[in-house]
Amino acid sequence: MSIPVDLADLARTLEQYGPGYLLSTAGESVKAVSADPVLSDGVVVVAGPGGGSLRNVTANATVTLLFPPREERGYTLLVDGTATVDGDDVRVTPGHAVLHRPVDHAGPDHAPGSTSSCGHDCHPVT
Fold first, then answer.
1. Residue 64 region, left (φ>0) first, then alpha (ψ -120 to 50), else beta?
2. Does 125 reside within a domain?
3. Helix locations, 17-110, DSSP H
4. In 10 A of CB 75, how many CB atoms?
5. Cβ atoms 20, 67 nearer than 8 A
6. Which of 55, 79, 75, 51 lies closest to 65, judged by CA?
7. What is the model's pLDDT at position 31?
8. pLDDT tens digits, residue range 58-110?
9. Residues annotated as region Disordered (predicted)?
10. Arithmetic mean of pLDDT over the chain
C-alpha cells in the first residue's frame, strides 16, 4: 500500500518522523547510513553522511531517504530524489515521496478516530 505525498507537504510530513536513512547506489555497491536530514528551501540536506555515501552520490545521483514508522504497523516515508555533494554534505532534491506499508498491516484497529472515506488503510498527510 503506497500513498503519494505531495512534495508541497513534505516538510509537514517530515516533522512526524525522526532520523532517517540515506540510501545511495553506485555500480555494484549499495550504501545505507543513518542520517538526520533537514529540509531547507525544498532541498533535504544530509550533514556528513561519510565518504562511502559521498562517493556513491558522485557516481550515481539517484538516492532514497527512508524514514521508518514511529508506531507498530505504521507507515514508512520514502523520499526519492536526485543528490549532489556539497563539501561533506549531501543535498537531495526530492522528486517523489510516498507513505508505504504492507497491505496486510492495515486494519480497523490501526486507524483510531479516522473520519476518512477512503477506507481503514488510508493515511492522509495533514
1. beta
2. no
3. 51-59
4. 26
5. yes
6. 79
7. 85
8. 999 999 998 988 888 888 898 999 999 999 999 999 999 999 887 665 555 44
9. 101-126
10. 80
CB of 91 closer than 8 Å to CB of 65: no
50: in domain: yes
> What's CA 17's distance to the chain center, in Å?
9
Exposure string for 42-70, b = 16+ CB within 10 A, e = fewer: ebbbbeebeeebbbbbeeebebbbbbebe
Alpha carbon distance 110, 83 (integer Å):
35
φ, ψ for residue 98, nearest 5 deg? -140, 155
27 or 50, higher pLDDT: 50
With 50 as the cut, is the pLDDT of residue 11 above it? yes
Indicate which CATH number applies to the domain containing 38.
Answer: 2.30.110.10
Domain count, the chain: 1
Q: Is residue 124 part of a domain?
A: no
| Structural element, H or E, at residue 113 | none
